Amino acid sequence: MTSLWLRALAWCSLGVGFVCAGWIVNDVFGRGHRQPMRVMEAVWPLTALYLGPVAIWAYRRFGRVDAMRSRMARRPRWAGIAISVTHCGAGCVLGDIIAEFALFGLGASIAGQTLYAEYAGDYPVAIAFGVAFQYFVISRMRRLTLGTGLAAAVKSDFVALTAFEVGLFGWMALMRFVFFDPPLHPSSPVYWLFMQLGMVLGFATSWPANVWLINRGIKDAM
Q: How would you classify residue 14: left for phi > 0, otherwise alpha for psi between -120 and 50, otherwise beta?
C-alpha cells in the first residue's frame, strides 16, 4: 500500500496536469488561438499532462500564433528542438495511456510479468500514434502524398519515438523492480504520478535523438 501523502501528491500532480491541459484547450478553441498545424492542438494539451505549467509557459512563449509571429525570427534553436520533442512525445504519451488501461483491463501478462506485456503493448501503439502525428506535420510542410508522407514520417520520427520509450520503459522497470513491492497498477493515481516522471525522462532521452535527426536533415525542427 502506498502512503496517504504519496496518494495526495499524486492526485495534486495529476490535477495540475489536467488543469494545464484544459487551459491550453480553452485557449486554442475557446479563445480562438487555433494552430496553423492542427495536430499541435492535440500535442500541446498532451504535453501539459506531464509537463504541467512548463507546457503552458512553452505554449505561450513559442506555440501560440501571436507568439510565433513575434518571436519566429529570433526564436532560439533549442525551442524548435523542444517543440519537436513534444511532438513525438505526444504520440508516445497518448499511445501509452491507451495501451496501459487496455492491458490492465485485459489482465495481460508475459512470463508472469505485467511489465513485459506493457512493453509489448505500449511500444507499437505509441509508435503508431507518433508516426500519425508526424505524418500530419511533414505531409503539409513538404506537400507529400499519403504513401510518401507516411514513409517520411517513419523515417523522421521512429528513432526519436523509440528514444522516448527507452527512457520511459527504463523508469517503468525501476517502478516495478525497485520502487514498489507489490507493484503499482494503472488503477492507482501514484502509478500515473510516476508515469508523469517517466515521461519527463522520456523527453530527456528523446532530445539527443531529435538533435541528431534535425542535424542530418532527416527531420525538420518545428
A: alpha
Hey, is 197 helix, strand or coil?
Answer: helix
Domain count across the chain: 1
Which of 203, 117, 219 lies closest to 158 in space, CA to CA? 219
CB 121 within 8 A of CB 171: no
Task: Say what the pTM is.
Answer: 0.89
Question: What residues have CB less than 8 Å from 174, skipping those under 6 apart?
Answer: none
Block residue for cell numbers 488501461: 101
In a domain, 222, yes or no: no
User: Domain for residue 221, yes or no?
Assistant: no
Q: Is residue 77 part of a domain?
A: yes
d(CA 111, CA 48): 35
- Amino acid in position 183: P
pLDDT digits (tens, 9 = 90+) for 69-112: 655 556 788 988 999 899 888 988 999 999 999 999 999 999 98
What is the per-residue DSSP string for 30-72?
IS----SSTTHHHHHHHHHHHHTHHHHHHIIIIISHHHHHHHG
Residue type, 105: G
Q: Confirm whether 146 is domain-assigned.
A: yes
Phi/psi of residue 113, nearest 5 degrees: -115, 120
Instruction: State the residue range of the domain holding 197.
Output: 4-215
76 secondary structure, DSSP code: -
